[in-house]
């Protein structure tokens, strides 16, 4: 690779797409943000978001760089689904090089500078990956219907479930249930269902601050839910640390709230992420290019 080459790393999730332009030495030259980039839920939108973010990053740098000069790597939500990734990669891209990986893997590579380590993300959803000896092992990330334990969306669902049990007099009302009822302005279960029947994960995730607020005020019901979530995250980390404890980067909107609730053994493994997912995507691409250039030419 020549010293004048340019790389763009992308962190594309379900709510936004962030791009970071760097030169060959890793200096950040420009950044930009665009819309969602989940290749499973909306491939067309993801494509548009990537192109918009790339163009925005180049524009913010003030440099005259053509798209066909760029090496682009995108860590994308949904890229862990092989069929979706294959279809998405098969599109015509205007870049010199284009590669995809999951947003979880990109974040892990960035957090640990390409070294062995564990990354747990807990925001609207939850998932974990362990990078060891140049390979990834993933757990969780199955979506709210089947998983995402401990996540903001999961906390919201559990809070509503608890409130419905209270409304039906199957358990005692709590500060959490009263706060949830006040938030929605409901008096019975039918009202609650009408308010939440069209909710998606992000909508339930917006209820998580109410759960932590009740927890901080000593609500036992909220504490039970939150400790269940913290226990799941601790179990995830321990399951990935059986062979050899590795540094753990806990990221996402709920990372700071959960950190003091994890096991003492896990606290010793926690570390501050070194870099962002965009930098991790660029690391992945550079390693891919190095391997490709090291391969002997095919005989004809």
Automatic annotation (TrEMBL):
InterPro entries: ATPase_BadF, ATPase_NBD, Euk-type_GlcNAc_Kinase. Gene3D superfamilies: 3.30.420.40. Residues 8-259 form the ATPase BadF/BadG/BcrA/BcrD type domain. It holds the Pfam family BcrAD_BadFG. PANTHER family: N-ACETYL-D-GLUCOSAMINE KINASE. This is ATPase. The lineage of its organism: Bacteria, Pseudomonadati, Pseudomonadota, Gammaproteobacteria, Alteromonadales.
């Amino acid at each position: 690779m020549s010293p004048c080459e340019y790389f763009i790393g992308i962190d594309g999730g379900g709510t936004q797409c962030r791009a970071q332009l760097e030169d060959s030495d890793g200096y950040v030259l420009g950044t930009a943000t665009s819309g969602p980039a989940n290749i499973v839920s909306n491939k067309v939108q993801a494509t548009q978001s990537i192109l918009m973010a790339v163009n925005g990053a180049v524009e913010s740098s003030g440099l005259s760089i053509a798209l066909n000069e760029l090496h682009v790597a995108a860590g994308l939500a949904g890229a862990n689904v092989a069929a979706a990734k294959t279809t998405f990669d098969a599109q015509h891209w205007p870049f010199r090089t284009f590669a995809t990986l999951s947003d979880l893997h990109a974040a892990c590579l960035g957090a640990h500078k390409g070294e062995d380590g564990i990354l747990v993300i807990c925001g609207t959803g939850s998932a974990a990956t362990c990078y060891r000896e140049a390979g990834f092992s993933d757990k969780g990330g199955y979506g709210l219907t089947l998983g995402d334990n401990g996540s903001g969306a999961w906390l919201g669902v559990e809070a509503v479930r608890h409130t419905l049990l209270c409304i039906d007099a199957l358990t005692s009302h709590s500060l959490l249930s009263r706060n949830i009822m006040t938030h929605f302005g409901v008096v019975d279960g039918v009202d609650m269902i009408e308010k939440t029947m069209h909710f998606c994960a992000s909508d339930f995730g917006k209820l998580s601050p109410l759960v932590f607020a009740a927890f901080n005020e000593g609500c036992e019901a909220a504490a039970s839910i939150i400790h269940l979530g913290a226990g799941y995250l601790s179990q995830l980390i321990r399951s990935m640390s059986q062979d050899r404890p590795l540094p753990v980067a806990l990221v996402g909107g709920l990372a700071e709230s959960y950190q003091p609730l994890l096991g003492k053994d896990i606290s010793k493994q926690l570390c501050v992420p070194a870099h962002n997912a965009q930098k991790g995507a660029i690391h992945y691409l550079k390693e891919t290019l190095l391997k490709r250039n090291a391969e002997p030419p095919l005989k004809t």
